[in-house]
Design goal:
Number of helices: 5
CATH class of the largest domain: Alpha Beta
Helix content: 25-40%
CATH topology of the largest domain: Alpha-Beta Plaits
CATH architecture of the largest domain: 2-Layer Sandwich
Number of domains: 2
Structural class: alpha+beta
Radius of gyration: 21 Å
Low-confidence stretches: none
Mean pLDDT: 88
Length: 190
């Protein structure tokens, strides 16, 4: 049975060993890690973990033990897992990329266009360096969305502020952006 019971989130100044420290406590308390996503954003470690905590566990004590392993200035939350109602509408997975001049309001404009079409971001990463913005997002879009018009609207919104915006089906994105490693033939010894 892999039903989640809680969501654990941590935001803390980054240092080595955070995942090891957190998972040691989880393991010691018979907590099963079902899914996790972790990244470092501007020197801050961030993680969200979907877990199954044994029913007999003291959740407050578990949270206190986890918090004790973190540095000052850390934020930890242990929330009861409540599944969100999922749309019964069929969706397709797409990749959205945007590159170019950094501009205030771009994230809102792009996310509003996706939301207006019934889309949902499932993963999003954005960074501005040297006044250049790079954005990569995975989104789910309804099967009946007018993709051509959405692409036109995204390109128009991007070009108005100096961004190149592309929307591709996830399989096409993977096929055109995958790095393939090939085995080289063994060299004969001379």
């Amino acid at each position: 049975m892999n039903e989640p019971s809680h969501i654990l989130t941590v935001v803390t100044p980054d240092k080595r060993g955070i995942i090891a420290a957190l998972t040691e406590i989880l393991d010691r308390n018979q907590v099963t890690v079902l899914e996790l996503s972790q990244t470092v954003v501007r020197d801050y470690f961030t993680i969200i973990i979907v877990i199954r905590v044994p029913a007999e566990s003291d959740h407050e004590q578990l949270a206190a033990m986890l918090e004790a392993t973190l540095a000052d200035g850390a934020s930890l939350s242990l929330l009861d897992y409540k599944p969100s109602p999922r749309s019964q509408q069929a969706t397709g997975a797409y990749m959205l990329t945007a590159n170019g001049a950094a501009s205030t309001g771009v994230l809102h404009t792009i996310s509003a266009l996706i939301a207006e079409r019934g889309g949902n971001f499932t993963d999003l990463s954005s960074r501005i360096m040297a006044q250049e913005m790079n954005l990569v997002a995975e989104i789910d879009l309804p099967k009946n969305v007018a993709l051509d018009q959405l692409q036109i609207d995204l390109e128009h919104a991007g070009s108005a502020v100096g961004l190149t915006v592309r929307l591709q089906h996830q399989r096409l994105f993977q096929a055109t952006n995958e790095i393939a490693f090939r085995r080289l033939p063994k060299r004969e010894k001379s």
